[in-house]
Amino acid sequence: MSEYKITVGIECHVQLNTKTKLFSGVDNDATDKEPNSCVSPVDYALPGMLPVLNKVAVEKAVRAGLAMNCKINLVSRFDRKHYYYPDLPKGYQISQMYQPIIGAGVVHLPDGSDVHIEHAHLEEDAAKSTHFGSYSLVDLNRAGTPLLEIVSMPDIHSAAQARVYCEELHRLMMYANVTNGDLYQGNMRFDVNVSVSKTDKLGTRTETKNLNSFRSVERLIEAETKRQISVLEKGGEIKQQTLGWDDATGKTTPQRGKENAQDYRYMPEPDVPPIVLEQSYVDKVASEMPKMPADYRSEFSVLNLDDSAVEAIVNYPVLANRLSEVCDKNVKLAPRVANWFASVLLAEENLDKDFSLATGAELAELSEMVEKKELSSTAAKEVLLEMYDHKNTSKTPHQLAKEMNLLQENDTDALSAIIDEVLAMPECAKAAEDVRNGEMKAIGFLVGQVMKKSQGKANPASVNELIRSKLS
Q1: CA pair distance 94, 262, nearest whole angstrom
Q2: What pLDDT shows up at residue 362?
Q3: Which pLDDT score is estimated for 413?
Q4: Distance from chain centroid for Cα 155
Q5: Using CA of residue 238, residue 244, residue 245, residue 250, what is the dihedral sign?
Q6: Are the beta carbons of 126 and 81 closer than 8 angstroms?
Q7: 412-471: CATH number
Q8: At CB < 8 A and 24+ separation, what contacts does 353-358 make?
Q9: Which of 47, 118, 122, 434 sits most deeply, having the most CB atoms within 10 A of its CB?
């Protein structure tokens, strides 16, 4: 297998999170809605109905292009892509074949490699077909949903790299706020082209459509690579075709021969005028772009965190944003907060991508309380979870810690009195004598007794120091 070069290209369909559809004024969010309830005469393609372009979809397309370091084409236009299938009422799809809104660009991956973008174009989504053996049902709720189709160059040469690319593309679209990003709901879907060859010339490719998980993309490429190599090793030829992927069995099945572009009989769309943008408009959109994943990775590089922890945090824009705020407040407090995010919050079940969380200033305050030994590390994690669970609370970390009875006792006189009581206990006499004789292992037992008597409020470090002083 090592003799063969694997080449992968990926077309990603991104559903834009606009309020209304690309060419009609009906609700663009059909989640949990009745079939065929979010539709209009435009979506049904009734005679005489004319499309009207959604300008917010154009803005989101520009944002997506900027997130991928792409050239934004100031003039773009729509074309009709003809094909006949039940999910396309008009008999054609309004797309952008010849003059797409987004030109060439590049996605920089966390592993240091690059995947170049050929272009990305706006188009309307088709309806959804559900197949039931001898019959199929069509739901038009999805018809007309604004899509951005992102076409990569064949720069990917392994299943693992393909997964990293898809994950980073998903992050970019989420950070740019152009999609809801729910893969299960089909907000992003991947069409994967795979070919193998022993030379620099690309082999015959197959295309597998509508994969909706990073794991499926990786598994499909691994399986299709093995299949193609097996065919070639046996003296066969790879057929250019569209495949279906069965996630349960991990196998592909042929669906149809691959169409060429001319089969779609593209023609200019006569009912939608060209999109003409001013450079000042693009500059304004660029100025409003938020920090992107690469910006946060660079910022967090000074925190000496594991790469896995950084990537886990960057996966959640709210966590990356809050950690950045902590860095701005006091960078020395940030590593502790980062570790809390990675080990505590990300261990929570049902953690939403868009959950709320305390401000960076409050998180810095919580970290500082540990620094000042007002809270133990364990207690601070309990307060952090309270800050997440009660996301609308206006209470400070100190107030929450006090209410939860977690503040550590640092008053030397109070601790000294508790230690004296413990040392006077008969069951502690031997341990105290051992410490006096230099056997410091025994001090742990005494510290434990003090913690028990103080109901966990005593600062262990202070207790340790005071016991040593008293028994020296």
Answers
A1: 16
A2: 92
A3: 67
A4: 22
A5: negative
A6: no
A7: 1.10.10.410
A8: 353/174, 353/181, 353/316, 353/317, 354/318, 355/318, 355/388, 355/391, 356/318, 356/391, 356/392, 357/318, 357/319, 357/322, 357/387, 357/388, 357/391, 358/322, 358/387, 358/388, 358/397
A9: 122
Half-sphere exposure in the Cβ direction for 21 (13 Å, CA): 27
Integer Cα distance of 84 and 370 in angstroms: 65
Q: What are phi and psi for residue 5, nearest 5 degrees? A: -100, 125
Give the separation between CA 452 and CA 321, rounded to whole angstroms. 39
User: Cα 427 to chain center, whole Å?
Assistant: 56
Burial readout 237-258 (b: 16 or more C-beta within 10 A, e: otherwise):
ebeebbbebeeeeeebeeeeeb
Asked if 196 contacts 4 with a C-beta cutoff of 8 angstroms, the reply is yes
Query: Which residue did the predictor score with more confidence, 437 or 176?
Result: 176
- The pLDDT, as a whole number, for residue 261 is 46
Angstrom distance (rounded) from CA 309 to CA 161: 19
Comparison of pLDDT for 453 and 211, the residue scoring more: 211
Domain layout of the chain by residue ranges:
5-282, 291-403, 412-471
Sign for the CA dihedral angle at 131, 136, 141, 146 comes to positive
Nearest to 361 by CA among 335, 388, 322, 398: 322
Q: What is the CA radius of gyration of the chain?
A: 30
Residue 81 contacts residue 97 (beta carbons within 8 Å): yes
Structure confidence by residue, pLDDT tens digits, 103-143: 999 999 999 999 999 999 999 999 999 989 899 999 999 99
Count other Cβ atoms within 10 Å, centred on residue 235: 6
pLDDT higher than 70, residue 392: no
Name residue 348's beta-bridge partners.
none
Give the C-alpha separation, 362 to 313, whole Å.
18
What is the spatial distance between Cα 334 and Cα 328, in angstroms, rounded to a whole number? 9
Report the candidate in 125, 108, 122, 250 with the shortest Cα–Cα distance to residue 187: 125
How far is the C-alpha of 307 from the C-alpha of 301, rounded, in Å?
9
Among 372, 340, 348, 458, residue whose Cα is nearest residue 409: 458
Residues 147 and 188: their CA atoms lie apart, in Å, by 9
Q: What secondary structure does DSSP assign to 397-444, as a single string?
A: HHHHHHHTT-PPB--HHHHHHHHHHHHTSGGGHHHHHHHHTT-GGGHH
CA pseudo-torsion sign 320, 325, 328, 332: negative
Burial class (CB in 10 A: 0-12, 13-18, 19+), 320: buried
Give the C-alpha separation, 163 to 219, whole Å. Answer: 9
On the 0-12 / 13-18 / 19+ scale of CB atoms within 10 A, 185 is middle
Residue 452: strand, helix, or coil: helix
- Residue, of 352 and 67, whose pLDDT is higher: 67
Going by C-alpha positions, the residue among 289, 362, 354 that lies closest to residue 315 is 354
